[in-house]
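User: Run a structure prediction on this.
Assistant: Running it now.
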Amino acid sequence: MSVSITADQARRIALWRQGLLGTPPKPGKPAVQEQRVHDMVRSLGAVQLDTISVLARTHELVAYARFGAIERRSIEAAYWNGNSSFEYWSHAACILPVESWPLFAFRRRHYARRGIRWHEVTQKSVDAVLARLRSDGQLTTKDIGGAKASGYWWDWSDSKIAMEYLLDIGEVVCTSRVGWRRVYDLAERVIPTGLRTKRGWSDADGIIGPSDEECTHALIRAGADVMGVGTADDIADVHRISKVDVRKFAVELGLVPVTVRGWSDPAWATVEALEWLGSGSRAKSRTTLLSPFDSIIWHRPRTQRLFGMHHRLEAYTPAPKRVHGYFAMPVLHRGDLVARVDPKREGSVLVASRVTLEEGPVGTAAEGVALALLEAARWVGCEDIRIDEVIPASAARKVRAALKDARRLAS
C-alpha cells in the first residue's frame, strides 16, 4: 500500500536529507570544520566537481551552503587529504567517500570492457605511466609531460589518455589535487586493501569487486538515502544508474512506495525519511546561495517538481541569449527557491550582476537575496555589495532596501 504525502512534505524531506535545515554550527577549530566536511561527503554520497569558479568552485560552495562561514582552506583540506575520499565518475566527476570505492566496480568493468577512453589508448603508454607511478610515486600530468599534445583542449597527450584510462578502470586513483591539478597514485597504495579485495567478490574483466548487480542494488539504496523521497529518475540520477533497475528493485531493497500529490510519476521513500517526517520537525531552512551543481538542484526535472524552478546553467550560452546570467545561483530562503543571483567579484566588491526574483511575495524574495548576499560577501572577504540589474525592475527598490536593512541589523 502506497503512502501519500504532499509536495511540501517531499520538499521538507529533501532539504533535511541534504543538510539544509537548521542553524549551522559555529565554525570551531579547523579540525572540527574538516570533520564536518568529511561527514557531509558521506551523507551526500557525492559532491560534484567543476572548473568554473565565480565566488568559489562548486565543491566549496556545496560545503558553504550547509555550514556558512566555514574556512575555505578547511574545505579543501577535508576533500584533498589523500585518504578519506577519492574522485570518480558518479553523477558526473565527483568527490566520493572512500568507503564507496567497491560500489563502482561495475563502472570500472564497463570502461575495461570498452578498452577505450574518449581517445584510443595504447598499451605502450599505459605501461609507461604505470612504470613511472611505481618508481616515482604520486604524479600530475605535468610530471609526465603535460596533458595536451597541442593547443586544442581535446587533443590530449598519450600519457594523459593513459592516465585517465587507468583512473577509469581503477588501477590509478586521485585522492588529492595541487593547484586544481589531479594528483594520481596507484590504487593499491591509496585505497585500503579491504575496499579493493574481499572473499566472495567476483573478478570480472580483470576488475575485482562486488558483482554488477550488487553494485547496482547498493547504489539504488544510496541514491534513495540522498533523495529521501524521489522518483525512479531522481534516485537513478544520483549515481547515473538505470531507472529501470530502480523500479524493478526498489521495494525489494526496502524502499516504501509513495504517492506525492502533484507529481505525475510514482515515487519511493526511505523508512528513515518517513520516520523523520512523522517526528514533526519544524527546523527552518538555511538562507543561502546554491551552486547550480549542488545535489539539491542538480537534477533539473526534480528541481522543477520540488521548487517550481526551471533552472539551467547558462555559462555555455552566448551572453546575449542568457536569461539569468553566466553562473546564476538560486537563493534558498524559508524552504523555497525565491530568486536567482548571478554574482561576480570586482576587487573587494561582491557584484550581483543580475538578480531575478521568482513568482511569489516580493518582500520575502528581497529578504532572501539580501541575507544570502551579505553572508556570501563575508565568506569570500568582500567589503561591499553592489546590485546591478533586478528583474522585474519594479522590485529593484525593495531588493536594495532589504540589503540596506540586512546590513544595519548585522552591524
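The first strand starts at residue 3 and ends at 5.
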